[in-house]
Design goal:
The protein is α+β, with helices and mostly antiparallel strands and 297 residues long. It is 42% helix and 27% strand. It contains five helices and twelve strands. The chain has helices at residues 4-54, 121-138, 149-171, 178-182, 262-289, and strands spanning 58-59, 62-66, 68-73, 81-88, 91-100, 107-112, 118-119, 190-191, 198-205, 208-219, 241-244, 247-260. A hairpin with a 2-residue loop joins strand 11 (241-244) and strand 12.
Length: 297
């Protein structure tokens, strides 16, 4: 049985011990706010500057001009479509596409007109989000004093939001309907002009540059086939139907070829590292917060 007298006599000792522990924790937490937070912010800036640099690599010897890279897109399992794409930062400056028509084995050749280039919106958006994250970090330089853990968490949440959006732009291509593809500006960029029964699309998926070619056939006006327009999708399958200018079409063949873009792979790694650094700092803040749950750290 507990001795009530003994328990009461130990209270001042326990209180003194908890006060010492609290003082130590206060000191550690102040060090975290003053020193370690800025150390992590510096690491984040260094990593994200590397990521940002990948989006705008200069040409060796010509620092004012973005580096041009050629990518050969093909497949080891089929040779219906082959493409050579020239990527310069966020823009496709040249595309050279060969398409072997399924029925006739005729090879069609298309390339961008010399006055045209195609902006890859995914890369542009990802770069903008990285730059916004860098602006958030640079607004809290080493002279800035964080007063609470909540303030640090607010900054980390804002940075993580931009990084997640940047990553999602590269990992989640935009869905499009077939009429949207057929009427997009991309279809007007080729010479010779694309025939009415061929459509193309370019997009980024993770670290890959993808080219999709759709071959179509017109459905007869009096067809008894059940017509059901396809919805929005990144990649449409054979059999998908759509209507455009009072004509009905069905996708007969789909060809997809792709190629890894090494610097896009680098940026995805940088995003992962940065998100981990943010989360680790938030976790450290939460450890201290649990000791003072009545106080907003």
């Amino acid at each position: 049985m507990l001795n009530p007298q003994r328990s009461l006599s130990e209270l001042p000792k326990m209180s003194a011990a908890s006060q010492v522990e609290r003082a130590v924790l206060e000191e550690e937490f102040n060090w975290l706010l003053k020193e370690e937070v800025h150390s992590v912010l510096k690491q984040l800036q260094d990593v994200l500057k590397e990521a940002s640099r990948r989006f705008s690599m200069p040409t060796p010897g010509l620092e004012s001009q973005l580096k041009q890279e050629n990518f050969i897109l093909g497949s080891s399992t089929m040779d219906q479509v082959k493409g050579v794409l020239t990527l310069q930062g966020e823009a496709l400056t040249q595309a050279d596409i060969n398409l072997k028509v399924a029925k006739s084995s005729q090879v069609l050749h298309f390339q961008f007109r010399e006055d045209k280039q195609w902006k890859l919106q995914q890369i542009q958006d990802a770069r903008n989000h990285v730059n916004q994250a860098l602006q958030l970090l640079s607004s809290h330089d080493e002279s800035y004093h964080f007063k609470t853990g909540a303030e640090v968490n607010k900054l980390m949440d804002a940075v993580m939001l931009q990084l997640t959006r940047a990553r999602n732009r590269l990992t989640t291509p935009a869905s499009m309907t077939l009429p949207e593809l057929a009427t997009s500006g991309l279809m007007k960029m080729f010479t010779p002009p694309m025939p009415g029964d061929v459509m193309v699309n370019f997009y980024i998926n993770l670290s890959k540059l993808c080219l999709t070619v759709y071959q179509l056939h017109v459905l007869p006006p009096n067809t008894t086939k059940n017509f059901k327009p396809a919805g929005s999708s990144v990649l449409h399958n054979p059999g998908a139907m759509f209507e455009l200018n009072n004509n009905r079409f069905e996708v007969s063949h789909v060809h997809k070829v792709e190629c890894v873009v090494p610097w896009l792979n680098d940026t995805l790694v940088f995003f992962t590292i940065s998100l981990q650094l943010c989360q680790q700092l938030k976790d450290k803040i939460s450890v201290f917060s649990s000791f003072w749950n009545y106080r907003p750290f």
